[in-house]
Amino acid sequence: MTVLSGDEATAVLDRQTSVMEQLATGAALTDVLEGIVVALEELIAGSRCSVLLLDADGVLRHGAAPTLPRAYSDAIDGLEPGPLAGSCGTAVHLGRQVVASDVVSDPRWAPFRDLAVEHDIGACWSSPIRSQAKIVGTFAVYDRQPHEPDARERELVRRFTHLASIAVTHDGAANEREARHAAELARQTAERANHAKSQFVTSLSHELRTPLQSITGFTEGLKTLDLSPDRRQQALDGISHASAHILSIVDDVLDLARVEAGAMPIALEPVGAADVAAATVALTRPLADACGITVELVGRPVDVIADRRRLQQVLLNLVSNALRFSTSDTVVTIRTEPAIRHGSRVAHVHVIDQGPGIPEELLARLFVPFDRLGADAGREGGAGLGLVLSKRLTEAMGGALDLDSTVGVGTHVRITLQPSPRTPKP
Ligand SMILES: Nc1ncnc2c1ncn2[C@@H]1O[C@H](COP(=O)(O)OP(=O)(O)OP(=O)(O)O)[C@@H](O)[C@H]1O
Ligand SMILES: [Mg+2]
Question: Does residue 217 share a domain with residue 291?
Fold first, then answer.
């Protein structure tokens, strides 16, 4: 350090501190390198400096050169290291500093002589930047005249090259940390997806086993020749009920798999939401009568952009939930209406019941396949696929499905869809 004056040594230390600060705050590598380059240019009057970085293909790329002409930087971008590759390419090739005190007569500059003259370059000396003993780039100082660097200049370049090495090493370590973090996140996501998948398969086989067992039981019974006609009929009804249940689970699972794979054919067209709601009321009337529940249709007719069949499927799922989980003498309301959401026109279809409601702590499990939240499958009969399938189908139609529930008050499901242009203003 003896070749530097006290002031210069302080300036180097100051610059070192500010680079450390920049690195600590996560500044971009190019900004840090530009800061280093500018600082050296201030200490070596009339000089222009640059940092080139080796890329994965082993060629030198622009790192920082705030005062060199852009055309010159562009011309040497992609420089391949070699024995006659100017100061920088040769420095990488030889693994040591290369001083070209007069580029016009220096053989290593022969291929770049015209470029040097054009951009007013008389001398250039370049040192390899190392990170963990590996060469990662070069630090170059250009002079307009032929010039041999003195001891002071060499010391300054040594210091600043070292500073650039620290910046590049730090950046590499930060990138590596980030890549490790991203890989860890990806691993966790894959693990969760894997777990969800095996959970799904376990639940599916469990759900199928119960009706299959009852079919086996009834078939065994039918093999007994002395079964009374009544018992025979019971067994046949039982088989047909269990088969229908299996079929509906298989249908729902296939729909869910298709919609989650983005392979569900969805034919979007303007659909009268109130018409679909009215059809739902008609289709669920036998269930509503059996439950002693009234289903009413209110609101304003709205045309939505939807797949009619899939919208019908969603509404049937929601209304049958409302009916199966509510007590008798309550009312289930379907309301269709135009609305504004986040400043845009939308259409809403609400399904509101006066059932027991869902405890807040169970809401997060609502859209988990096969999770019935502890509901008795024997009485209510579902497999726990209706809500997740309805949500995915609605999303596949470009809409959203939200559920609100208050224990003791009831459950409110809101479907949001795009309105068709024919829809009246809210
Ligand atoms: N309107 C509602 N009121 C109270 N609880 C509900 C309501 N809708 C759904 N739930 C609860 O959420 C669970 C999941 O509903 P989902 O529709 O997904 O399945 P499911 O109705 O049990 O079976 P599936 O719809 O496959 O026939 C239900 O088992 C029930 O516990
Ligand atoms: Mg359901």
Answer: no
